[in-house]
Amino acid sequence: MNTLSENVLSGIDYASISRKNRSRDIIFASLGIFVLFIAITTLVALFLDLAMRGAPRLADPDFYTSFPSRRPLDAGILSAWVGTIMVMVVTAVVAVPLGVAAGLYLEEYAKKNWFTDVIEINVSNLAGVPSIVYGLLALGLFVQTFGMGETVLVAGLVLALLILPIIIVSTREAIRSIPSELREAAYGLGANQWQTMSMYIIPAAKPGIITGAIVGLSRAIGETAPIITIGALSFIAFLPQSPITGDFPFISFEWLNSGFTVMPIQMFGWVSRPQADFQITAAAAGVVLIIMTLAMNALAIYIRYRARKS
């Protein structure tokens, strides 16, 4: 029997199999590099086109510190970029803790039965639902039923609902990537389930969780449909109340109930105007929006790097 096995193994051409595998690896790697090159080239071309078209406004300091105007050369993005930052703060504060907690519960605490299977299927499906559906949900629930109005808080909540499935799925995948030996070692040291999760699993999965959160926030910062659906304005000549005040307790939450606009809506309003100067202004706003998105992703990469290093 051993002689037969040795004869069978000796008849295998290992060199040929190795060459085929290397060829497949080279083909797959080349395809990936080609797709990456196309994606990066498209982004760079779009950015350069917007930068060249919007250069006159980008070089004007008043463009960043002025409110929108019916005169294209006087129009600025002050209310738009401030509103975008405030909405994204609300989105992050609501979506990230809820998404991480939900992902942790489904992966580590929930019992495996038909009910959790239904939840998992729905969470995965919700990640692909068109964004305008979330806008209609927010319009009917937050604006009409609860009477919360068209405010920064409602905008942050609808975008949080939009990216919540993304954060849940990425959190679960990050937790699944942690070797089971780490859990067993923690339990062997006497740690309970929560101590194991909080002291070992979550810190180890932190880079993946942060990546998923930033991917979700990057999608949210460019969304227009759900924000328009809840009634956001495209022309706002005022800023929300500052969250920092001079009186105790020095923090105010009145800005959550303020009207707002965001960069995508401001750009949409300018693009729809017939004047050529508004197209230049919209191109400049597009450059600022791309820079804001890239800056957010760069911050995520830095945080992820520090998390992995620690």
Automatic annotation (TrEMBL):
SUPFAM superfamilies: MetI-like (SSF161098)
Family: Belongs to the binding-protein-dependent transport system permease family. CysTW subfamily.
Official protein name in the record: Phosphate transport system permease protein PstA
Bilayer topology annotation: Multi-pass membrane protein
Keywords associated with the record: Cell membrane, Membrane, Transmembrane, Transmembrane helix, Transport
PANTHER family linked: PHOSPHATE TRANSPORT SYSTEM PERMEASE PROTEIN PSTA, PHOSPHATE TRANSPORT SYSTEM PERMEASE PROTEIN PSTA-RELATED
Segment forming the signal sequence: none
Residue ranges occupied by any ABC transmembrane type-1 domain in the UniProt entry: 81-300
Transmembrane stretches, start-end: 26-48, 78-106, 126-146, 152-170, 220-239, 280-303
The species this protein was found in: Halomonas gemina
Keyword Transmembrane helix: yes
Location(s), subcellular: Cell inner membrane; Cell membrane
